[in-house]
Amino acid sequence: MSGAQEGLRVVALGGGHGLHATLSALRRCPDVADVTAVVTVADDGGSSGRLRRELGLLPPGDLRMALAALAADDADGRFWSGLVQHRFGGTGALAGHAVGNLLLAALLERDGDPVRALDALGGLLGCAGRVLPMARVPLDIEAEVELDGVDGPHLIRGQVAVASTPGRVRRVWLLPEDPPACDEAVRAVLAADAVLLGPGSWFTSVLPHLLVPGLRDALLRTAAARIVLLNLSPEPGETAGFSPEQHLEVLSGHAPELRAHAVLADIGSVSLPERLHAAASDLLVPGGRVWLADVADVRAATPRHDPDALAGALLDVFRAAVPAAGTGGGDGTQQHSPQRGRSPQWP
């Protein structure tokens, strides 16, 4: 663990709006000195999908959103953050593209190095942290889906298709199946004091991090406190009808060896706390716990986290879980008895 004066090193894994919420909260945590966002690279829709298909580059949208969340909180930072988030209107070739997507695409095409491209744009934004891709190559998501009235599993390919499927997603995997992890992301996880997984689109933004072998191994080996942040509500299509405990069951099914030091959920989103505690018992390390807190923005028209409330809850979790993780021996795979080969507990 970092010294008290240095502050905590925190890595947040995810994508899209869920990761943006986590990063916005981390910026408000006085105990956090260093933030690294590790972002999914499987988006194939909208502006990101168009640039990916036309140029063969990493989809830039989720990366752009993470950079904007970490932009400097001053006049220059707010100006550049607003600019990179701006989308062109009209009906021409630029319609729907975000300025930041085009900037990242230009940097990626010119230099060919996604880490250098992200560091360059992060410098322009004055980012209070670093944004990294989970892999240096674009990935595809494929899912096994159960469709009403259809016998046998149905395969769906593509992030947008999986996220909007009318069926029940059972499991997901990546193509290529064993993509190389971004080395800088692996090093950040191994050096962290705390690693956050979620919230976000569970099958397409959260679980993919556990399907990159090098990143999954780093998550198992790190001495950091591993903290799972649950969504405020199920998402139409992808996790329609899922309870909070079913999110944990799916997580364990995709990564049976993973153990967490804490699970954080919004108290208003958990109707049956005893079931969540029971589901978390197989995931948590000895001494780990479920934290319930008011972290939802009650003023929002759609479910979203309140960054100040989430920051306060994370501080409580950090102060309890990080010291405990730091005394556990430094290797998550040795602090518990992994249930190798067990059958996934699907909802």
UniProtKB/TrEMBL annotation:
CDD domains: YvcK_like (cd07187). Residues 333-347 have a biased composition (Polar residues). It comes from the Bacteria. It is found in: Cytoplasm. InterPro entries: CofD, CofD-like_dom_sf, Gluconeogen_factor. Keywords: Cytoplasm. It holds the Pfam family CofD. Residues 325-347 are annotated as: Disordered. Signal peptide: none annotated. NCBIfam families: CofD_related. Required for morphogenesis under gluconeogenic growth conditions. PANTHER family: GLUCONEOGENESIS FACTOR-RELATED, UNCHARACTERIZED PROTEIN YVCK-RELATED. Belongs to the gluconeogenesis factor family. This is Putative gluconeogenesis factor. It comes from Pseudonocardia kongjuensis.
